[in-house]
Amino acid sequence: MTLPFAIIAGLTVGSAIAAMSLRNLVHCALSLVVTFAGLAALFLQLNAQFVGFAQVLVYVGAVAILIVFAILLTRSAEPGPPASMTTGAGWGIGIAVAAFLAMAGAVTSSVVMQRTAPPPSDLTVRAIGHKLMTDYVLPLEVIGLLLTAAMIGAVIIAMQERKSKP
Amino acid sequence: MAEQLDQLFVHLKHWLVGHLPDAWQPLASILLSITPVLMVFPGLFALTTVIERKGLGRIQNRRGPNRVGIPLTNIRLAGFGQFIADGIKALIKEDVVPRAADKVVHFLAPIALVVPVLLAYSVLPFGRNMVPLDLDAGVLFFFAVGSATELCLFMAGWSSHNKYSLLGAMRAIAQMISYELPLILSGVAVIMVTGTLSLPKIVEAQNVYTGTIAHWHVFTPWGLAGFILFFISSLAEANRSPFDMPEAESEIIAGYFVEYSGFKFALFFLGEYLGLFAVAGFGITLFLGGWTAPFSWLTWIPSWAWFMGKLVTMIAIYIWIRGTVPRLRADQLMNFAWKFMLPMALLNIVVTGLWHFTELAGWNIVVRWLVCAGILIVPYLLLGRAFKAKVGQREYRYAS
Predict the structure, then answer these.
(1) Which of B141, B135, B150, B151 is closest to B120 using CA atoms?
(2) B177 touches chain A (CB under 8 A)
């Protein structure tokens, strides 16, 4: 474990915990952005430039804005009264620990741990583009169709609202 | 000699790094790449604030700043000492934080704005062999850090607990998201033709000469249309006039940074101008040939001089537009982005494909020019006419 990895991982996990436990919803959203950025940095550590930058562009640039707008438009951002602790906290912690131990056991005993790291492959954007346009062209087209349908749907919803106004 | 001058800074850096012990060389190399960026562009920002005020003054038939020179002497420097006075003023001003403000987010917002803007410079090629970080996905990196600034505007607007600043932030984000689309789509055309996301390679692709004229992308029909789309979107991305609605003093008392004073305000100012320079440099790299010369008999001028010359010209055009074009209303701004810029940018991508394949098919260049330009101009005229019919003559209800 190198030092940069430790810093990035600590930041990612810390901000993820903050995103779950902070009282103010906007603070939670902002810590979630730090988590997204940390994940992007982890991708960059693995030499996956395209995925890392796409992560920043999509999650920090778009999804975070969407979350923030949703918070502001749906409810007051003022922190409410602190919620009382649930009585089953002990149960919850117990189940969480058990689940973690089960997963850790499964991972350490699986073949993943015995596998040696493959040689660093040619992860250029060009290679990804070729793959997308040849081997994975059908999924790409399906996603494109889905996104177009979503966009047209959004436009239709926005148009109907305007028509019913006068 | 020309070659020496062209590579002056590269050689200087290698010479400096060469004097250090081996263990320090990587660190010194990184520092010597970053430091000039951190010195040159904020310096350019300082000069631009003065030039902009003087230029706007001239456009509005007044003089602009012409007093401040070197302190304690009578030398006035035609007002070019103004930025020093402004900087000192910003530094020693009281930093007022509203009582209701979210202190941590309020403090972090200006810093979080300047960091991605400065990061954007790391992929720009300032000259031959002069790129701080040659990333394989440089274009994507630029767009990614550019999109990270929007959240900082929200942080600033929300944490101030002021409805005007929140309104300003909402407007700014809506505008930036809308204009990011044509910005990226006009860049896609360049990526399609050059087949790479690396900025130095995009410049190399334009460093080819037919006869004496360079193969700049702006010299093709799709490149010209793409550059105009990119230029308009860059104005909106940088919140520049005529798209400066988010920070219009006369509309919403200055937008998302209402509650900022002193040096934090100066940081917003700095971030905005640095963002403008970065996106201008990016446009130069994509469409205006980066550091290459337009004619082959001008290649003796050093490459970095070409880049800086183009950048200064772009800044002058930005100032000129700010002084002459009236501000758009918020709904006009959105309509323009979604109903005009976006369809034209999508059409431009189709035309780019057509241009590429007719080149492969060996068509005559004049025929290709006419066909591609026609496909772009006819929808442009039709869209413009539809806009005019819908908007009509502007009525000033209370003024007439």
Answers:
(1) B141
(2) yes
- B179 touching A (Cβ < 8 Å): no
A57 and B158 within 8 Å at the Cβ level: the answer is no
Which residues of chain A make contact with B105, given a CB cutoff of 8 A? 26-27, 30
Domain end: A77, A107, A134, which one?
A77
* Domain stop point among A77, A102, A134: A77
Sequence-separated (6 or more) residues with CB below 8 Å from residue A15: A31, A32, A34, A35, A38
**In the predicted model, is pLDDT for residue A165 greater than 50?**
no
8 Å CB contact between B242 and B332? no
Do A59 and A1 have their domain in common? yes
Residue B394 has pLDDT above 70, yes or no: no
Asked whether residue A62 is assigned to any structural domain, the reply reads yes
- Residue of higher predicted confidence among A118 and B287: B287
Q: What is the CATH number of the domain that holds A54?
A: 1.20.120.1200
Q: Are B121 and B41 in contact (CB under 8 A)?
A: yes
Structural domain that includes position A16? 1-77
Domain count, chain A: 2
pLDDT value of residue A102? 94
A129 within domain boundaries = yes
Contacting residues of A for B154, CB less than 8 Å apart? 65, 68
**Residue pLDDT, tens place only, B155-214:** 888 888 888 888 888 888 888 888 988 999 999 999 888 888 888 888 888 888 887 888
Look up the pTM and report it.
0.85
**3-state class of B114 per DSSP?**
helix
CA B64 – CA B255 distance, rounded (Å): 25
Site from A57, A124, A148 to mutate, B interface, most B CB atoms within 10 angstroms? A57
Kindly state the average pLDDT of the residues B330-339. Answer: 82
So what's the pLDDT on residue A118?
A: 65
Q: Which residues of A touch B195 (CB under 8 A)?
A: 126
